[in-house]
Amino acid sequence: MNHFLLTGRKALVTGGAQNLGAAIATALTKAGAAVVLGDVNAVAGEAKAAELRADGAQATFVHLDVTDEASWNTAMPQVISALGGLDILVNNAGIEVTSLLIDFDPAALRKMLDVNVVGTSLGIKNAFKAMKPDGAAGKGGAVVNIASVSALIAFPALSGYSGSKSAVDRITRIAAAESGALGYGVRVNCVYPGLIGNPMGMKLATDVVDIGLFPDVETAVGSVVGLTPMGHLGEQSDMANAVVFLASDAAGFITGTGLAVDGGMGS
Questions:
Q1: Which of 14, 105, 142, 208 is most buried, judging by how many CB atoms fall within 10 Å of its CB?
Q2: Distance set, CA 213 to CA 43, 100, 106, 188, 209 (Å)
Q3: Which residue ranges form the domains of the chain, and what is each CATH number?
Q4: Tens digits of per-residue pLDDT, 65-82?
Q5: Does residue 130 surpass a pLDDT of 90?
Q6: Active-site residues: which are they?
């Protein structure tokens, strides 16, 4: 038996319409899982789900605002109905706001915390309710939260983002402890992605240039590469493969931990 395969597993990926979330959804389907993409972007979400179906996967889109409990209450029955259960939740939805502390906007920080911290917490809450023995899915499962290498290092202009992703790390560990103590049968882990050359990563590079920390994007990216022992940026597939591992039986005795997929940057 290949313990890395997810054949027959049923997964929800938040923020699954594009970028890293879409890559994670693709990797899960390639490992054999059926997926629901939960996102506020219906156009991109429906398109990605159609693309996955065209490749032979079972995939669908459900509207989900991770910050809104009412949205979760509406989406979860749809997810479980579409999949016939739920074994995996990937809390991927997140936003990044770049700002020096001297300039930070409280409203922007609150919005980021709402998505990154409240959204992740609501995801865990709903996964536990569904996956625990008396839940609608009731077979246990795995939650994988997306944190960030910024939870492990001090990088200028990322105080708010780093704080939010550090919170994701702590929430992950406490959720794992609660699941174990209360017999939910749900493993909870997180991934610390390094910088990826996707739109979100490149926006960060542009933002730190605009702030004045670096003269140009090439220098900004080069500074990150210089902090990375492997000497290059990560790919979305690197992060997605780590999620597949943590969701699989190969990680069956792993819970309450974080997996750095950052080329050694956070070491």
A1: 14
A2: 36, 10, 21, 36, 6
A3: 10-194+235-258 (3.40.50.720), 196-233 (no CATH)
A4: 999 999 999 999 999 999
A5: yes
A6: 161
